[in-house]
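Thought: the user wants the 3D structure for the chain below. I'll pass the sequence to the structure tool as-is, report back what it returns, then summarize two notable features.
Action: structure_tool
Action Input:
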Amino acid sequence: MSILVFLIILALLILVHEFGHFIVAKKSGIRVDEFGLGFPPKIYSKQWGSTLYTLNAIPFGGFVKIFGEDPHSENISEEDRPTSFYYKPKWIQSMVLVAGVTFNILFAWFLISLGYGIGIPSPVDHSGFGEVKNPHLVITEVMQDSPAQKAGLKSGDYITSLSSGASNLKDKDLTPENIQNVISETKTEVKVNYVRGSDPEKSVSVTPSNSLSGGKKVIGIAMDEIGTLKLPIHLAVLEGAKTTYLLTKATAVGLFSFLRDVVLFRSDFSQVSGPIGIAGVVGEATKLGFTYIISLTALISINLAIINLLPFPALDGGRLLFVIIESVKRKPISPRFVRNANFIGFAILIILMVVVSTHDILKLF
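Observation:
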């Protein structure tokens, strides 16, 4: 089930991205030869104007064929040049190229705004509009190979009580500070009662470790008091815009830091997840509820947008870089060089995906 939900999410995000390229190209007077839902083989097609709209057998995603997008100017007649991507001004080419990324960001804004409209999980110290209601103490992170992970605790679980010896925390006494104090002072183990999604309450015993935090006893979790924030539509849109901006900024900074660490040979690839790892996260989100799926989809959409903007061949950012170079040089880059660069870039991306996916599979065992 989680794989199916992940594939639906991925298909939707790809479709949104390709629709961005499609609509901006159309509005810019560029001929779009085909807009496909799914991938071939073709099931049904309908010609509408200059565009062939197709429904394809593999339903996950979509594609758009923009006339003159590849640098093969020698095959374009004088009559067709006004509707060719290749012969449009560089600023129009740039708009078409960044349209996919822009639509992914706008889609994330829509999803986050929708989440605020129906009620979305938010920390109680939320600084925006509205009041957070029905707060719970939620596990926001579980350290790798920690006692908590070995006991089966996961991000998204909310703690209903914690006890050790004579200490028993629940209700208003259940705060991150009080829990940390009980854990640090216990001489045996702590009993954690928790709820995951709509499942019945469960209980686990966890033995704290002093090897994870400089000699201080911990079980390896981060916690926050999180409740539900529901806003009227106009405030939901405003809060959605603010949250989308903050998430986009944080994602860009995080990706830049990771790439910098790669260059300096100090990156931690164990924290990188591919499609299989993301499918697992989606599976956990489906157990927690619809609003978690909305939030996760928005976050994936933002990540896809930022990654696509990287100036790497085969990505939109790489193609945009070629357009900028041509603008500066005032002459076109060799079509053969562009094709070869995009082919090599695509091959590298495929190899990277295989490596990361293999790592995801190994983590399952």
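Final Answer: Structure generated. The radius of gyration is 25 Å. The chain has two domains: 2-118+277-363, 133-229.
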